[in-house]
Every structure is written in C-alpha cells, then in structure tokens.
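Hi V.,

You were right to ask for the full record rather than a summary. Here it is.
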Amino acid sequence: MQRLDLRNPGIPDLQFVLMVGALCTSDVASLNVPQSVRDDVFDRCWRLLHEEPPPQDPAARVLDLRQGDETTLEALVTLIRMAFEDHGFAELTWDHPP
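Predicted structure:
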C-alpha cells in the first residue's frame, strides 16, 4: 500500500504536485479518493494555471508546469492541500502492483 501524507509528503513540491496530478487523472481503482474529488482537485489546479476550462479528454488532462514559477508552485501545493481537506482527506493511499 502506497501512502502520501498531504501535509508532510516527504518529497519536493514539484514532485508532489506532479504526483497528485497524475493520481487525480489516473484510473487507479484502489486510490482512496472518489473520481468526483479527483476531478475537482485537478480542475482547481488547471484553473490556477489556465484561463480556459479544463479539458474533458483524459489524454489532455495533464498539468504542464514548465511556464510556472516558485510562487505558482507554492500556490498549487496550497490549493491541493486545501481541496483535499475540503473533502475530508489528509492522505492518499493506493495499491501499487509489483
């Protein structure tokens, strides 16, 4: 069982944002977060980075952070934590097959 503590992830902020974004858009059935919450968190992150609405095509639902700066990254980390807290989650858990 993999675990990611949203308050103290133990990884750099960039890796944290990319990992959460990937988990939110993945089809990992064992993730302890319902799809509606995953979509909400991803959509909030997308809106912070873009003026257009989030894409509906699963292949296009990728957070591209290359144009961002440290302030943007910090805002994304805060947004992710707050969004999951709004839904009652303090940690993400999922099974990762070998």
